[in-house]
Design brief:
The complex is a heterodimer of chains A (about 350) and B (about 80). Chain A is of the alpha+beta class. Chain A is built from seven helices and nine strands; from the N terminus they run H-E-E-E-E-E-E-E-E-E-H-H-H-H-H-H. The longest helix of chain A has about 35 residues. Chain B has one domain. The longest helix of chain B has about 40 residues. The chains are: A alpha+beta (about 350), B mainly alpha (about 80).
Chain lengths: ~350, ~80
């Protein structure tokens, strides 16, 4: 019983912390978005969730950065409001490398808000090309770090980074439930052997038919969470990637995996003798699980994917999940998993009562 | 009861699917993209909630059926 209460507690914690903790400040865009070398540009920087007025303007520093060694510093910083800054940049007559134009990152360092960055914020074009010392005069240093409890700011996804606590745990629950389902299928086949069946301890509630019922119930709950993961992923994708279904390798492989599990239920119900159906379904379930791991965890890493952590990395890199996110993400996984097991158990207990009432047990 | 529940549930789903896109597309405002796409998170939470409610309702319906069955003569049970 305690773990059911724990699951509710953790999910409520996830809902509250996951939705109410603010994001770190970020930069959404700058204006103008292009300039020519040798120009004096007054750049407007637009912040997200920022509080620029909370510090004197002369303590706010801004840079346009080319790489770690090349950047120019803005002067005359003016704070227009909490989310708008103006800074003047004297763009050098020459570019830091031998190309016709460069994309520069905008960096704001604020004593309270910490550092925020917009990659490729402004394009600077140039006619003559050479390397210049002006780019190295003002190195970026002594940056402030915002230390309060807040989630990272990411361009394009913004607040929807919080879906990490709702969409991603669905897949963890699916995995745990399918592992449990495969485990009970193995148990079922193991104890199908009459010699082994004699060792089942009825006083502990062990019975062959229960293994089959549990395998089915856990697979069914796993499928529910898989469908939820797929649907929530499509909603998120619509607003983060531009389309609900973009044939991303992970989307495709997940759909295949869910169809494989759907077939498990059809197979299980398509026999007149329940025992024969149970045995074949158990064998199929083990194969389904064996195909689930490559489909969800191996194949998606071998191809380019829109998901983070594709092409060889673990599903989450250190950039995708910081320590404040971990404090919500891990409880979310535990909470949703326990909840998934709870649902599966209810389904199993219903099936057992039904079978007993109808004389099948 | 069974018929009642299913109807209520699908009425809610139908209402949401028909009315939400119309409501969200009022004028030039994009409710899902403004305020940092926070409404996408709300949408995801609502979808998860509805999915779980759907599963629980299905189980509820099965239990109701079983309850009725247990009241009747067991021998009449056919599945």
């Amino acid at each position: 019983m305690w773990w059911k209460i724990l699951s509710v507690f953790l999910i409520v914690y996830t809902l509250i912390a996951g939705t109410l903790v603010p994001l770190k400040p970020g930069v959404t865009y700058v204006f103008p978005e292009s300039a020519r070398s040798g120009e004096q540009v007054v750049l407007q920087l637009h912040g997200y969730n920022s509080f620029y007025t909370k510090a004197p303007a002369n303590e706010i520093r801004t840079w346009l950065q080319f790489d770690d060694a090349h950047a120019i510093k803005g002067d005359n910083v003016r704070v227009l409001n909490d989310t708008t800054l103006e800074a003047r940049f004297a763009i050098p007559t020459e570019l830091p490398n031998a190309v016709a134009s460069v994309m520069l990152n905008a960096i704001i360092d604020h004593p309270n808000d910490g550092v925020s960055l917009l990659p490729s914020a402004i394009e600077v074009a140039k006619d003559t090309i050479a390397s210049a010392a002006a780019w190295q005069a003002n190195a970026i240093s002594e940056l402030h770090v915002k230390k309060d409890f807040s989630f990272p700011y990411r361009n394009v996804i913004y607040e929807s980074i919080r879906n990490t606590y709702f969409h991603v745990p669905m897949w963890f629950v699916l995995m745990f439930l399918f592992i449990a389902s495969a485990w009970y299928s193995v148990q079922f086949l193991r104890y199908s052997n009459p010699a082994q069946a004699a060792t089942l301890d009825a006083s502990k509630g062990q019975s062959l038919i229960d293994f089959d019922r549990k395998a089915a119930a856990y697979a069914e709950a796993g499928l529910l969470f898989g469908l939820l993961g797929l649907i929530t992923g499509m909603l998120w994708a619509h607003y983060a990637w531009g389309a609900a279904w973009s044939n991303d390798i992970k989307q495709l492989m997940t759909a295949v995996a869910l169809l494989i599990y759907l077939a498990y239920f059809i197979l299980r119900r398509s026999f007149d003798e329940p025992e024969k159906g149970a045995r074949l379904a158990a064998v199929y379930n083990i194969f389904a699980f064996a195909s689930l791991v490559p489909l969800l965890y191996i194949v998606p890493r071998m191809f380019a994917s829109l998901h983070p952590g594709a092409t060889g990395n673990p599903a989450f890199g250190s950039e995708d999940l910081d320590n404040t996110m971990r404090m919500v993400f891990y409880p979310a996984i535990i909470g949703w998993s326990l909840f998934g097991f709870w649902l599966a158990q209810l389904r199993f207990r219903y099936q057992r009562i039904l079978d007993r009432a109808t004389g099948l047990d | 009861m069974k018929f009642f529940q299913t109807r209520i549930f699908f009425t809610i789903i139908l209402f949401l699917t028909i009315s939400l896109p119309t409501v969200l597309a009022q004028g030039n405002r994009d409710y899902m993209r403004e305020t940092g796409k926070i409404n996408v998170v709300i949408g995801v939470i609502v979808l998860i909630f509805l999915g779980i409610v759907f599963y629980v309702l299905r189980l509820d319906r099965k239990l109701t059926k079983l309850e009725h069955q247990l009241k009747d003569d067991k021998n009449e049970w056919t599945n």
